[in-house]
Specification:
The protein has 487 residues and is α+β, with helices and mostly antiparallel strands. The chain has helices spanning 17-30, 100-107, 119-125, 151-164, 169-188, 193-203, 217-221, 225-235, 251-262, 314-325, 331-339, 380-397, 402-419, 423-437, 443-451, 455-467, and strands at residues 53-56, 62-67, 79-86, 130-135, 140-147, 241-247, 286-292, 299-306, 343-352, 357-365, 471-478.
């Protein structure tokens, strides 16, 4: 149940078997290989399109069905994905209740009128499948993978918990304790957990993206059973959801099952609340400091405003983020970790949400911490800040070798295509298209946009969204002895 977003700061994953051959095929298509640098840019790779059937029931439920594409007489995969995407995320947390959407995600696995606690585990894991969920800033997603002959059972179960969830005070307390333990582990227990948890509250000025998806302990403790019931009535309803079924299924049969189990669900008389706040443009550079009781080495993060995930610049920003911060050969790693070395760890992320986005470049200093009042004046902090800016500027204004660009685009495209090898991955691609572009049929547009990125596009978006924009500089240092850092 991990939040997900467009976030690029991970190392290259392993590439065994089928994945290795896919990488090699894409590399050859681009003219790039490990033995020589390309002299021509990446050629377009023909991607098998996703062609879902999309319809909307009378109660407002959007239904997306994507049967496996196979030749007549060819055996099917025997597996299917059933997902429900609710248009409610961290930005929709009630005032004073940050983390509530994520908490409610946990509660959705509790009992209903006809299902016992944790029944989804039994309906999926006991037949060789799995069931899980995640919450982002914009959506909460429940995803199941099962043998194809269990699809109708999962559709019934999803309709049952959409309409008849029955949360008790004991369950609320139990799941709240689980979320608080997750908070302690991921935020308080990690040396830099408070840094990444603190970026959104420091960065966003008015938009509710400023509330971290995982929330804050004191606000989670304030949540009541009445809060749960109000939240459920507002957001967990058919006209605020997209149901996706993909895999070894027949579309006409799925339509019959969906009508049977979801068609009779009632829509409340009141409309779904929507966030209408628009984040203002930052008009000046700003600086702020976060402290924590145990900081092994100081860190710096530079944060800039960015467009939303559906913007035309999204593909170029993804490529720019990968060029700067993904893997040991990235620009920031090569400059700050390997050549200087000023930093022990670096990253660059393009967190592009539905309404707006945030770009972040960060570096953790090499060497031990500076303790006491001198921590705020550690000379490594301005050097890290200058090095981050200089490296971004070099990418925006200098030469980008074709081989470097093609390698990054090939990797990003490979990740997307590998994910589409499963019914669950194809369903997720459709769901993200709904969240980012309000249309499941736009899933292929993101790959086309990615393939179309050229060096001049990367440089243009960096000039517009970074070099010509105001930023927030965040410094993360050891708290003075005896002080109490806020989680």
């Amino acid at each position: 149940m991990t939040p997900t977003s467009v976030h690029i700061d991970a190392a290259w994953p392993a590439q065994p078997g089928r994945r290795r051959w896919l990488v090699r095929g894409l590399a050859l298509a681009s003219g790039w290989s490990a033995v020589g640098r390309a002299e021509a840019p990446l050629g377009l790779v023909r991607v098998p399109p996703l062609v879902p059937r999309v319809r909307i029931l009378r109660n407002g439920l959007q239904v997306v069905v994507l049967p496996d594409a196979r030749a007549p007489g060819q055996p099917g995969s025997g597996t299917a994905a059933v997902q429900v995407w609710y248009r409610v995320g961290g930005k929709d947390d009630p005032p004073g209740r940050s983390g509530f959407a994520h908490l409610f995600e946990h509660l959705m696995f509790k009992r209903t009128r006809h299902l016992a606690d944790e029944a989804f585990d039994r309906l999926t894991e006991d037949v060789g499948g799995d069931s899980n969920a995640f919450t982002t800033e914009d959506a909460t997603v429940f995803h199941n993978a099962v043998p194809a002959n269990h699809v109708e059972r999962l559709l019934w179960a999803e309709a049952e918990r959409m309409a008849h969830l029955q949360v008790t005070l004991a369950q609320l307390r139990s799941e709240r304790a689980v979320v608080e333990a997750e908070f302690r582990q991921k935020v308080l227990g990690e040396p830099y957990g408070r840094l990444f948890h603190g970026m959104a509250p420091a960065f966003w000025q008015v938009h509710p993206y400023r509330h971290p998806v995982i929330g804050r302990v004191e606000e989670l403790n304030a949540a009541s059973l009445d809060d749960v019931r109000r939240f459920q009535a507002r957001y967990y309803r058919p006209d605020n959801a997209t149901l996706i079924v993909a895999g070894d299924v027949e579309a006409d049969q799925v339509d019959v099952w969906v009508d049977r189990h979801f068609g009779g669900l009632v829509v409340p008389d009141v409309p779904v609340p929507r966030v209408s706040v628009r984040e203002p443009r930052r008009t000046q550079d700003q600086w702020t400091t976060l402290t924590a009781p145990q900081v092994p080495a100081p860190a710096v993060a530079l944060l800039w405003q960015a467009p939303g995930a559906g913007h035309a610049d999204a593909g170029a920003l993804r490529v720019a983020a990968a060029l700067l911060g993904e893997g040991d050969s990235s620009r920031l790693s090569a400059e700050l970790v390997e050549r200087t070395p000023l930093a022990q760890s670096i990253g660059f992320a393009a967190d592009l949400h539905g309404d707006a986005g945030m770009l972040s470049a960060w570096a953790i200093a090499a060497g031990p911490p500076v303790l006491g009042p001198d921590a705020l004046h550690d000379p490594r902090l301005p050097r890290l800040e200058a090095a981050l800016l200089q490296t971004v500027r070099r990418l925006a204004e200098g030469r980008i070798p074709i081989g470097e660009l093609d390698k990054v685009r090939t990797h990003l495209l490979t990740e997307a295509l590998v994910a589409r090898q499963t019914a669950e991955g194809r369903a997720l691609a459709l769901g993200w298209a709904v969240v980012r572009r309000q249309d499941a049929r736009m899933a292929d547009a993101e790959l086309a946009q990615l393939q179309a990125v050229r060096a001049e596009d990367v440089q243009r978006v960096l000039r517009v969204h970074v070099l010509a924009a105001h930023r927030l500089t965040l410094r993360y240092v050891q708290a003075p002895a005896g002080s109490r850092a806020r989680p």
